[in-house]
Each structure stands twice: as C-alpha cells, then as structure tokens.
Design goal:
Elements (H helix, E strand, L loop, with lengths): L5 E7 L1 E2 L11 E2 L6 H19 L4 E8 L7 H14 L2 E11 L3 H4 L2 H7 L3 E7 L3 H6 L6 H13 L5 E7 L6 H13 L4 E6 L7 H4 L7 H17 L3 E4 L2 E3 L6 H7 L3 E6 L3 E5 L5 E6 L3 H9 L4 E6 L5 H9 L6 E2 L1 H7 L7 H9 L9 E2 L3 H5 L1 H6 L3
Parallel strand pairs: 1-4, 1-11, 2-3, 4-5, 5-6, 6-7, 7-8
Antiparallel strand pairs: 8-10, 9-10, 12-13, 13-14, 15-16
Helix pairs in contact: 1-2, 1-11, 2-4, 7-9
Length: 379
C-alpha cells in the first residue's frame, strides 16, 4: 500500500483585532503575548502526537491563525528548529505561514524567510479602502499594495494572496478591480472566494447588505475569466495557481492525506496501520490549551471514523479538486474497495454530475456547478 502523505498544521490563535466575518479560532492579542510559553507548548504538543506518526516524514507545514505574523521571527525560527529536531522532513518541502499586510508584519518578512518559511499567504481581502473598513481590517490599501512587493524583496518567490468578493455593497466593477490589482502584484497563487456569513460571527448576528445572487454569479464568472487569461488555473473551488505553484499542503487535505494538528483549536487526521482513521481537535482557548499541555492532554475530542462514514469524508474533499483524482487513490487513502460506492457513482454518472472514466473520479461541468449536489450523493 502506498504510504499516506503526512502534513503538519500549526495554529497561532491571536490577532491584533478580530474581524467581524471571521469564524476561525482567533482571539485578540493580549497586552503580554505569551510567545515563548506558546512555542514551548506547541513543541510539547507535537511530542505528544509522535507515537501516532512514528517513522513518518512530513511533506508540508502550514502555520495558520489567527495571525501568525504577530509572532517574532525569532519565535518562528525557534519553532521550526524544534520541528526539525522532532520529525524527519521532505527536502525543500513547502513551509507556509499566514501573514497580514500591515507594516508591523512586513518588516519581519525577510527574517521569516531566513528562519525557513518559503511560502507566504497574505490576507489582503480587498484593496478598496471602503471595503477594508467594512471588513474591519486594520491595514489600508497602500499597505495591501506594498505587501507583495516587500515579500518579493524579502526573497519569497512563492506567495499567495487571499482575496474575497461579494463584500458589503460591492459592485461587479469593484470586485474585478480588486482581482486585477491582486494579479498585478504577480503572486504565484490566489485564493479568491465569496464572503459568507458564518455562525458565531458579528456579521452573522448583524448581517451587512450583500450583493444578490445574480451579481455574485457575474462576479464569479467574469473573475474566473480574468484569472484564466492571466495564467491562473483553477484547481480547487477557491484556489487559482500559476504553473506548478499549487499549494501542496492544501492538496494533501483534498486528497484525503493525513495531517497532525498542533496549537489551540487545531484539528488533525491520522490513519493507523490497520486502516482506521482518527480525527481529533485541541482545546480552543489559548490559556486552557497551554494548561492542558502540562498534563499531557491537549486534545479536547477524539473520534474514530466509522467505516460507513469514510467514503463521504473522502468524496467531500476529493470532488473539490476541479480535475478530480485517480480512482486508485480512493483505496489508497481509505483502505476500502471502490466497489463500496459503486451505486452512488453510477447514480452520479446517470445524473450527469460525474464523468464516466475508468481512471479518474471527477465532476462534469454540471457536477462542478452543482458541487453540493454531487457530494451529497455520497452521504
């Protein structure tokens, strides 16, 4: 059986300010940021997970948040040095860190590169001052424009820009202007996705006026044309990359690979040698998380997937990839025969949602446009 790739996700939960649309586990930065204590907790957390992944090599690392760039370059260097001491890593592997484009973070970009970060994901969201204000972002339009330039000057030849459309009272022209400005920054990757009102956010409790469905559809269709003409290939629902610059870490998620999650609120998925799959999460509150680490119990929940749950979990991820996946990957990643979902596959093909291909599992154009319907057939 082909080994299942293993990635590492590291969560740093603090932000300078909580955005009203954000449903990630993020907390306003305290006056006395416990940087050293948290780095020590992360490494101890990883030590506690080693038994389940012993002998396996890391394929990618992603440091997310929150805003990881509130941590100093020295702290990130200490963290990466600790990782190298604990786990074998693939040579020249992708190590991504999320960062905000505020001047405070930009000054650290070069030091992050020297510490070993080789890919940045910069949270622009918009270049429009009006929309940045509506989103509660703390950076301005000039800082957004300068972020990519400073990243390149710091030595980053691989970076993503995070951008949203469908913002409060945003016009089609404004959305496309945002997108063109992102393209002009010459990133290797763009994450372009629609603003949604997630539960437990300020926007959900007090919804702002958003564009209607017809306007959203036009934004999406025209934006995808612009991205394609600029040389960005859509390979996932909201991910667009230049040639050979796809995010390896996220592809591992969508191809149902394994990942260790460390940090407050982090999630993990690990496949045991017998084929059983376990998902887990860590305590969300930073103080509680660091306290639990001391008692060797950072996990707040652990769940072993039932055999009948695994096919849906796999398809829910794999069908997000626009080109689909090789059929053999289903058995490699689930330890189940593809025949277990043959009735659902045949139904999806009959409905015109999946292509009839002996080598690949992929959606048709119709299946891609009605992706939720395609995925729901496997529930």
């Amino acid at each position: 059986m082909t080994p299942i790739p293993l990635s590492l996700y590291i969560h740093i939960p603090w932000c300078i300010k909580k955005c009203p649309y954000c449903d990630f586990n993020s907390h306003q930065i305290p006056a006395d940021l416990p940087e050293q204590l948290y780095i020590q907790a992360l490494l101890k957390d990883l030590e506690q997970e080693l038994a389940a992944i012993w002998g396996r090599r890391l394929e990618s690392v992603f440091i997310g948040g929150g805003t990881p760039s509130v941590f100093s370059a020295e702290a990130i260097d200490q963290l990466l040095s600790g990782l190298r001491a604990l786990l074998p890593m693939r040579p020249a592997m992708e190590i991504t860190m999320e960062a905000n484009p505020g001047t405070f973070e930009q000054e650290r970009f070069k030091a992050y590169r020297e510490a070993g970060i080789n890919r940045l994901s910069i949270g622009i969201q918009s270049f429009n001052p009006k929309h940045l204000k509506a989103l509660g972002r703390i950076h301005n339009d000039e800082e957004a424009k300068n972020a990519a330039l400073i990243a390149k000057q710091a030595g980053f030849d691989n970076f993503n820009l995070d951008l949203m459309f469908g913002l409060p009272q945003q016009s089609i022209a404004e959305a496309l202007e945002d997108l063109q400005q992102a393209i002009d920054c010459q990133p290797t990757h763009i994450s372009w996705y629609q603003l949604t009102l997630e539960p437990n956010t300020l926007f959900h409790h007090a919804p702002p006026p958003l564009p209607n469905d017809e306007i959203l559809w036009e934004m999406q269709q025209q934006g995808q044309t612009i991205l394609q003409q600029a040389g960005f290939e859509q390979y996932e629902v909201s991910a667009y990359a230049r040639h050979q610059q796809r995010c390896r870490h996220n592809i591992n998620y969508w191809q149902f690979g394994d990942y260790v999650g460390i940090g407050a609120g982090a999630h993990g998925k690990i496949t045991a040698p017998d084929g059983s799959i376990q998902r887990y999460s860590k305590y969300r509150q930073p103080k509680q998380y660091m306290q639990q680490i001391l008692s060797n119990n950072a996990r707040s929940s652990t769940q072993q997937l039932k055999r009948e749950e695994i096919p849906f979990e796999f398809m829910m991820n794999a069908l997000r990839l626009k080109q689909g996946i090789e059929r053999d990957l289903f058995t490699q990643r689930t330890h189940l025969e593809l025949s277990i979902i043959r009735p659902q596959l045949e139904k999806a093909i009959q409905k015109g949602l999946l292509i009839k291909d002996k080598q690949r599992l992929a959606t048709t154009v119709k299946g891609w446009n009605f992706l939720n319907d395609s995925i729901e057939l496997f529930m």
